[in-house]
Write a structure and sequence with these properties.
The chain is mainly alpha-helical. It folds into two domains: about 100 residues, lambda repressor-like DNA-binding domains (434 Repressor (Amino-terminal Domain)), CATH 1.10.260; about 55 residues, no CATH class. The chain contains nine helices and four strands. Strands 1-2 form a two-stranded antiparallel ribbon. A hairpin with a 2-residue loop joins strand 1 and strand 2. Helix 1 crosses helix 3 and helix 2 packs across helix 3.
Length: about 160
């Protein structure tokens, strides 16, 4: 944990346990639900190991299966509850839980310099993307569900105004 946060996989166990208990399911009930969905190899003992933090590396496929079976969003399983805690996205990059969930949900980039690629990707050539972002800046930014889109200075001005 060089960046001061916990890796997303370190949150999975407790979050699975919370979601399972919220449904008033036993670990065996969750294993049965996974089997109903066609997932094989899920036993009560495997779920217990995940919940107790004994599983150090959990696959993306297992996280997706658990989210589907529990009826929760994937970011729910990979981050702490509420606004507390940091998530280590890279060895030298940790962010707040809300920022991580916003990025993972596709609402906003983690790194401001990545905004063009994040929002426009390969959909617009570089010159068109630059034109679109310039227009967004001229109107003072664009408010989306995940926050304000615009250059870092536009977002800072908006944050300062709040």
């Amino acid at each position: 944990m060089g960046s001061g946060g916990k890796r997303p996989s370190e949150y999975v166990g407790k979050r699975v346990e919370l979601a399972r208990k919220d449904r008033q399911w036993r670990q065996s009930d969750l294993a049965e639900r996974l089997a109903e969905l066609g997932f094989t190899g899920w036993r009560q003992s495997k779920i217990a190991k995940i919940e107790n933090g004994e599983t150090k590396r959990i696959s993306l496929e297992d996280v997706l299966a658990l989210a589907l079976a529990l009826g929760v969003k994937v970011p729910y399983l990979l981050s702490p509850a509420g606004d507390e805690g940091k998530v280590e996205v890279a060895p030298k990059l940790a962010c707040s839980a809300p920022d991580f969930r916003g990025w993972l949900s596709g609402y906003r980039p983690l790194i401001a310099e990545d905004e063009r690629t994040f929002y426009l990707g390969a959909l617009a050539p570089d010159d068109e993307a630059t034109r679109i972002l310039r227009v967004v800046d001229e109107v003072g930014g664009l408010e989306l569900p995940g926050g304000l889109v615009g250059t870092p200075s536009i977002r800072k001005e908006a944050d300062d105004a709040r």
